[in-house]
Design goal:
The protein starts with a strand and ends in a 12-residue tail after the last helix. By secondary structure, the chain is an alpha+beta fold. The protein binds 4'-deoxy-4'-aminopyridoxal-5'-phosphate.
Length: about 300
């Protein structure tokens, strides 16, 4: 689908996966006007296909487009395009319980622009790929390291939108962490350097007794759709959920720590290394993470009643 600056998106068309042509002076290549989303389609036992909260991805892309001075499809255009793409690729949705179809909507400034300015044209593309279950043999804990020098996002920046440059910005710290044997990086706020923000592509939660805390969304953290869903699921199960500043010291007292995101749903944290000190969490797979994972994945796969109408 294409749209000129100030105009509306045209109707989309289905095309075979392949390379696309772009002007060397396209806005996305020169000035980083690019946004993406990630969501999944699941096959139910009766062969019907379920999408999980696609309108939330549409709204997040619209919020991002506003910040990045881009045109974006309406929520209806986005959701209808996702549905049409999934339907056309139905045979690629893995059998029930064996994985999902990962859906990647992209929005880019595709028009040519030489001096710094918003692109005169925008292109919206969706591609898909089947993916297996992230955890094939039960939940497995990840080991995080806290980064001190490099930051993922700054106040007033673009940390709260899913723009491509945010991901380039984490590659250096993430590669260094992986080379040292860690699974990923946990970022702190760049002002006080003491409050938890998020992991390279997941949100973070800290469990202490019946209280589950997660950093509040204040412009430097991506408002994860899994995060939002887990907060509601946890509350419905009787947990007290707090969205607030979560100090790094709270990791020392926590019973469990877990991350949330579309790819992993929930990823239990086995350890966090902070200033060279390793804080470990039991066997790494806490009961709360296990319980929340079980409820949310069964809901996404249509195995339990969807009282909140999250699946379409
Ligand atoms: N934070 C970042 C930086 C991410 O890239 C993602 C993945 N989209 C998340 C959090 C989790 O968001 P969601 O639950 O919507 O996948």
């Amino acid at each position: 689908m294409k749209c000129s600056q100030g105009g509306n998106f045209s109707n989309g068309e289905l095309k075979r996966f392949g390379n696309i042509e772009l002007s060397p002076s396209a806005g996305v290549l020169n000035y980083g006007q690019g946004l993406f989303e990630g969501l999944k389609a699941y096959r139910k036992e009766d062969d019907s296909i379920l999408l999980f909260r696609p309108e939330e991805n549409a709204l997040r892309m619209r919020m991002g487009a506003e910040r990045m001075c881009m045109q974006s499809p309406t929520v209806d255009q986005f959701v209808e395009a996702v549905k049409a793409t999934v339907l056309a690729n139905k045979r690629w949705v893995p059998p029930s319980g064996k994985g999902s179809l990962y859906i990647r909507p992209l929005l880019m400034g595709s028009g040519a622009v030489l001096g710094l300015a918003p692109s005169p044209e925008y292109t919206f593309i969706i591609y898909v790929s089947p993916v297996g279950n992230y955890f094939k043999e039960g939940l497995a804990p990840i080991n995080l390291v806290i980064e001190h020098e490099l930051h993922r996002a700054t106040p007033g920046g673009t940390g709260s939108v899913k723009t491509i440059g945010n991901y380039a910005a984490v590659l250096k710290a993430q590669s260094a962490a992986k080379a040292k044997g860690y699974s990923d990086v946990l970022y702190l706020d760049c002002v006080h350097k003491k409050y938890l923000e998020e992991v390279s592509s997941c949100n973070i939660f800290v469990v202490k007794g019946n209280v589950i805390s997660t950093p509040a969304i204040k412009g430097t953290i991506l408002p994860g759709i899994t995060r939002k869903s887990i907060i509601d699921v946890a509350r419905s199960l009787g947990f007290q959920v707090e969205e607030r500043l979560v100090a790094v010291d709270e990791l020392l007292e926590a019973d469990e720590v877990f991350c949330t995101g579309t790819a992993v749903v929930i990823s239990p944290v086995g350890s966090v290394t902070y200033l060279g000190k390793r804080i470990a969490y039991g066997n790494g797979v806490g009961v709360v993470s296990q319980q929340l994972y079980s409820v949310l994945t069964r809901l996404q796969m249509g195995l339990i009643e969807d009282k909140l109408n999250w699946t379409v």
